[in-house]
Amino acid sequence: MQQTFRETLDSTWGAAWDHGDVAALASIVTSDYVRVSRSSGKHAGLVDLQNEIEAIRSGFPDLVTTIDSVVTEDDTAAIFWTTTGTHTETFLGVPATNRRVQTRGCNHVNLVNGKIDREEVTWDGSELLHSLGIRHLSDAPSTSDDITLDDFSGEPDPQVMKTFNRQFITGVTVVTTQDQGAPKGLAVNAYASISLEPPLVMVCIQKTSSTYPALFAATHLGINILGTGQRETIATFASKSADKFAEVDWHAGPNGSPLIDGSPASLEAEIRERFQAKTHTVFICRVRHAEVVETPPIIYKAGRFYDSDDLTQL
Fold first, then answer.
1. Which of 9, 88, 151, 221 is the most buried (most CB within 10 A)?
2. What are 267-282's pLDDT values in tens digits?
3. Is the Cβ–Cβ distance between 28 and 12 less than 8 Å?
4. Where are the domains of the chain?
5. How many other C-beta atoms can be found within 10 angstroms of the C-beta atom of residue 209?
6. Inter-residue contact 112 to 30 (CB < 8 Å)
7. What is the DSSP letter of 163?
8. What are the φ/ψ torsions at residue 278 (nearest 5 degrees)?
9. Does an H or E element contain 314, and which?
């Protein structure tokens, strides 16, 4: 039985996962087939699996899945497999990174008359993104009392939130990267230091920004804290100009990220994780290079800019 099941599984999985012939899966599952995710507990049927395979293949067109081994005992089996693919198209709302990834997993199945009736899986499509350091903020396990990203009950009016945010004082940064040799950047005030040991920082980038696809595909980015003498630079990077670096002097960090000359502080960081948060992506980065000079930074509050030298100590 083991050899017959393995041969059927090899040809069917190859047709579905490697060539997109998802209809072939109907030949190896029962009419009551159910697929259960061990991580989320979600149940799915054959159509759901077929849709998932098509979605994954749309983002990883060269996807290849290899069955490493199959262990059967009575009417149960464990399927060990490896998947390899290149992220060349948008997948789950994530733009292409052109990176090649490999994931492994094991499926435990119950068999009825030689066909899969129930399948417990340790993997789903999001694991491919996890391998690229990309996660959704809703990935964390939740209880029935948790508020999810899609739960809008009990939220304040957007105007109240806008007023709240205007009360928060920040600096101004320009986040930069290279896109096929061309410098790209945008003004960002959603920056924070996470820790000093190890040196971790985060920035939050809106997905509609023209710089966003280049940042998402990059391995490193630059963060420049702008100073009181760079008011025009702020305006440039807050605009939709096609070439924001046309009149901006800059130099490359060790890994090529544009660092803007004259900034009070600049750093280059390696992008370690990308958390998807609806309209924005949170980039978690490990600092690899930093530069600091004695130039006062500019301060931003409620849509206005202020000179940090005029602050009064309390």
1. 221
2. 999 999 888 888 899 9
3. yes
4. 2-132, 158-308
5. 19
6. yes
7. H
8. 60, -105
9. none
How far apart are alpha carbons 159 and 46 in whole angstroms? Answer: 45
- State the pairing for strand pair 134-136/265-277: parallel
CB–CB of 44/66 below 8 Å?
no
pTM of the model: 0.68
Inter-residue contact 106 to 79 (CB < 8 Å): yes
The encoded tokens of residue 37 equal 């995710």
Coil, strand or helix at 165: helix
**What pLDDT is stored for residue 156 in this prediction?**
72
Burial of 283 (0-12, 13-18, 19+ CB in 10 A): buried
Own/partner pairs, 36-42, CB within 8 angstroms, 24+ separation: 36/118, 36/119, 36/120, 36/121, 37/121, 37/124, 38/120, 38/121, 38/122, 39/122, 39/124, 39/141, 40/124, 40/141
Name the CATH topology of 2-132.
Nuclear Transport Factor 2; Chain: A, (3.10.450)
**What average pLDDT is seen over the chain?**
87
304 token code pair: 């206005």
Is the distance from CB of 259 to CB of 266 less than 8 angstroms? yes
8 A C-beta contact, residue 34 and residue 143? no
Q: Percent of the chain at pLDDT above 70?
A: 92
Tokens matching residue 309: 């030298």
End-to-end CA distance of the chain: 80
DSSP label at residue 257? -
For domain 158-308, which CATH number applies: 1.10.760.10, 2.60.120.260, 2.40.30.170, 2.30.110.10? 2.30.110.10
3-state secondary structure of 169: coil
**Integer Cα distance of 83 and 86 in angstroms:** 10
